[in-house]
Amino acid sequence: MQFDSFADFIDMGGYAFYVWLSYGVTFGCLATLITLSIRQKRKVLIEIAKKITREQRLKETRGTNRESKT
Amino acid sequence: MWKWLHSYADPERAYKLSGTLLPWFSILAILLVGTGSIWGLLFAPTDYQQGDSYRIIFIHVPAASMSMAAYMGMATASFIGLVWQIKSADWAAAAIAPIGAVITFIALLTGAAWGKPMWGTWWVWDARLTSELVLLFLYLGVISLYASFEDKVLAARAAGILAIVGVINIPIIKYSVDWWSSLHQPSTIKITEKSTMSSDMLYPLLINIVGFGMMIGAITLVRYRTEILARNGMRPWVRELATAEEAK
């Protein structure tokens, strides 16, 4: 352990702002990227599912139209 | 061997294989980045010249070196996609681009936050910094080209050509500190000779470099799987997954 106390660790030998800015932005950016990437999968699947229901509805209405003509 | 490799170009197999690999990459990434960062922040000795500000190195160097490695990965995937018309390779390139952009941004930002206390300035227009900024723009160019075509085969071709042409920037970044005089220090890790860095600083750095690589691998797998699903919405196996997801 290089630091005597927790306050010492936070202070980073007087460079606290630069060190914690770097680490903060890095892990903040990475966390955002990871969350967005994981969520994207569900979004894509829901979109495909919506398309499927739309197609089915279209097929059904087409079927009834044909029946009414005959 | 080519036949065996080709079977992994099949979207469903690629989807399943990347699903199997994902937990391994994730666990390794968390372990390595955790170890490297805690070691670097708490246990690595204070630098005699730069004090504790040098601790930024444990994320700056991994981010910078991996931003170039990820670019090479993306360009290789694009090349395979362009030459052999393998769509799964194009999707891999599309999956890597946003990750590379974020990693490059991190490299630039941590570099600026390290430059301010050590050089007295956030930014200088010297070769190393400028070429790394160009790398960020290359990633953004690839992302926007891929996003701007409805036809993704065409989009991948356009983005792929940009990615391949942009490879010229990688040796420029790598050797900029040797070719031109720069505020940026030359590399301290050497492969062929002894590194100019004490080993209790070097080990956490190496661990974090490998850790960042694993993490980029893991995020790539996540995005790659989503990209496969998005591009194969007409296939029965994807439709099954979609209806199952909607029912949730």
Could you characterize the architecture of this molecule?
The complex is a heterodimer of chains A (70) and B (248). Chain A is mostly helical and 70 residues long. Helices cover 86% and strands 0% of the residues of chain A. The model of chain A has no long low-confidence stretch (mean pLDDT 88). Chain B has one domain (54-233). Chain B is mainly α and 248 residues long. In chain B, helix 4 packs antiparallel against helix 5 (127-147). Chain B is globular, with a radius of gyration of 20 Å. Chain B has helices spanning 2-6, 11-43, 57-84, 87-119, 127-147, 152-165, 169-179, 199-231, 236-247. The A-B interface holds A 1-3, 9, 12-15, 18-19, 21-23, 25-26, 29-30, 33-34, 37-38, 40-42, 44-52 and B 37, 41-46, 51-53, 55-56, 59-60, 63, 98-99, 102, 105-106, 109-110, 113-114, 116-117, 215, 219, 222-223, 225-226, 229-230, 233, 238-239, 241-243, 245-246. Chain A: It is found in: Cell inner membrane.
SSE layout and pairing:
The complex is a heterodimer of chains A (70) and B (248).
Chain A (H helix, E strand, L loop, with lengths): L5 H6 L4 H54 L1
Chain B lengths: L1 H5 L4 H33 L13 H28 L2 H33 L7 H21 L4 H14 L3 H11 L19 H33 L4 H12 L1
Helix pairs in contact in B: 2-8, 3-4, 3-6, 3-8, 4-5, 4-6, 4-8, 5-6, 5-7
**Beta-strand content of chain B:** under 5%
The radius of gyration computed from the alpha-carbon positions of chain B, rounded to a whole number of angstroms, is: 20 Å
Helix content of chain B: over 70%
| Tally of domains of chain B | 1
First-to-last CA distance of chain A = 87 Å
* Elements of chain B, N to C (H/E): HHHHHHHHH
Instruction: Output the number of helix runs of chain B.
Output: 9
What about the largest sheet of chain A? none
Largest interface by Cβ-Cβ < 8 Å = A-B, 33 and 42 residues
Count the E strands of chain B: 0
Tally of separate helices of chain A: 2
The topology string of helices and strands of chain A comes to HH
Beta strand % of chain A? under 5%
Globally, the shape of chain B reads globular
Low-confidence stretches of chain A: none
Multimeric state = heterodimer
Share of helical residues of chain A: over 70%
Mean pLDDT of chain A: 88
Family (chain A): Belongs to the CcmD/CycX/HelD family.
Function (chain A): Required for the export of heme to the periplasm for the biogenesis of c-type cytochromes.
Organism (chain A): Shewanella litoralis
InterPro entries (chain A): Haem_export_protD_CcmD, Heme_exporter_D
